[in-house]
Amino acid sequence: MKQRVFVTRKIPDEGLRRITEKFDTTVWDSEEPPSIQEIVQNAEDCDGLVTLLSDPIGPDVINKLPKLRVIAQYAVGYDNIDVPLATKRKIAVTNTPGVLTETTADLTWALLMAASRRIAEADRYIRDKKWDVAWGPELLLGTDIFGATLGIVGMGRIGQSVARRASGFNMKILYYSRTRNESIENELDVKHVDLHTLLRESDIVTLHIPLNSETHHLISKAEFELMKEDSILVNTSRGKVVDERALYNALKEGHIGSAGLDVFQEEPISKDSPLLDLHNIVISPHIGSASKNTRAIMSRMCAENLIAALDGNMPPNIVNPEVL
Ligand code: NAP
Ligand code: GLV
Ligand code: GLV
Fold first, then answer.
1. Residue 9 maps to which CATH number?
2. Residues 311 and 231 occupy one common structural domain
3. Quick one: which of 242, 233, 234, 180 has its CA closest to 211?
4. Is any ligand 2 atom within 6 A of the Cβ of residue 75?
5. Which residue range(s) make up the domain with 301?
């Protein structure tokens, strides 16, 4: 008898086809995510589960699925999954690292440039029919990227790819990470500093750490107060790494200049979020890895992880290898 798999959303065909060919598969066929109850109902008796970062996979899911052997996440971040509980239950958890690094660094760079040069505001200005004078000596003045100081929080895969882009812009690069990264220090002119020094000295701060209990609200009121008045915060990691109320106040009161955000405390962002009333942010709806090519590769990688685990092999990208 074929093993059973539930896929919580239609992922690109490259991986989905392999899954449906090999397993007795149910694919959630709505754009609206399944509720916890709907995940449990559909995944009942399943050996494998394919999840998105927006699926909350906690005790109320894991404890209700006695046959489950693998949770294959279609993303690199897996803060939505209770990994300690999965490990206790001997369920493998897999993710899709590496293949989305450059695509996410590109989006980070796009937000960094858009925030520095007020691109979203400039676009709105013209569409709002406000462009009445040909050229304004002081129209929409931004801040320079070339030659500025960039602070990278989390020098992992994406942080390093952002650093490489920054070196092409002749930026001074500071970074803060739990551990020093000697390979990037040998490759580029980057300096490891403590978080407070980074916040005080950077013109642009960009976040590339995973969300966990140590990084939750890492950037809050006190941290914004250390930042330069004209500085820019870019966040393509996870919304909850930043205290969003403190961010709003910092932007409103001018503790920092602007922000470029791909991730939010609550996703989708509430239609009433006060952030949406600020002119000095540029925002995107969690599309860091969203290129056609990268999503296809992520789908294939996710399928390979799932298949390996259900065949009893070590998945290429396992988060908790101790279960096998
Ligand atoms: P990664 O290679 O694991 O890099 C994370 C870095 O953060 C590592 O250098 C790690 O260093 C550091 N770190 C972890 N905990 C820390 C802490 N408490 N304090 C300081 N540094 C800490 O991960 P990645 O592939 O670059 O991805 C990073 C994150 O980006 C993901 O977890 C995900 O949340 C997010 N992401 C978002 C999108 C999007 O669509 N917007 C796309 C992809 C990824 P050490 O552990 O060595 O100390
Ligand atoms: C996207 O946010 C990811 O973690 O892959
Ligand atoms: C601007 O277009 C310039 O020529 O300086």
1. 3.40.50.720
2. no
3. 242
4. yes
5. 4-98+292-323
Shared-domain flag, residues 121 and 189: yes
Shared domain for 154 and 235, answered yes or no, is yes
Residue 97 Cβ < 6 Å to ligand 1: yes
- Which atom, in ligand 2's list, is nearest to the CA of 286? 2
Query: What is residue 215's predicted lDDT score, i.e. its pLDDT?
Result: 98
Q: Which of 9, 69, 286, 295 is catalytic?
A: 286
117 tagged catalytic: no
What are the distances in angstroms from CA 82 to CA 40, 167, 254?
15, 37, 38
50: tokens are: 């394919």
What is 145-203 written as a DSSP string?
Answer: -TT-EEEEE--SHHHHHHHHHHHHTT-EEEEE-SS--HHHHHHS-EEE--HHHHHHH-S
Query: How far is residue 237's CA from residue 261's CA, in Å, rounded to a whole number?
Result: 9
317 contacts: CB under 8 Å, gap ≥ 6: 94, 95, 96, 97, 301, 305
| Mean pLDDT per 10-residue section of the chain, whose length is 324 residues | 97 98 98 97 98 98 98 98 98 98 99 98 98 97 98 98 98 97 96 98 99 98 98 99 98 98 98 98 98 98 98 98 96
Q: Are residues 307 and 227 in the same domain?
A: no
CA 226, chain centre distance (Å) = 24
CA distance 51 to 83: 13
Name the pTM for this structure: 0.98
Question: What is the number of the ligand closest to the CA of 139?
Answer: 3
Structural domains of the chain, count: 2
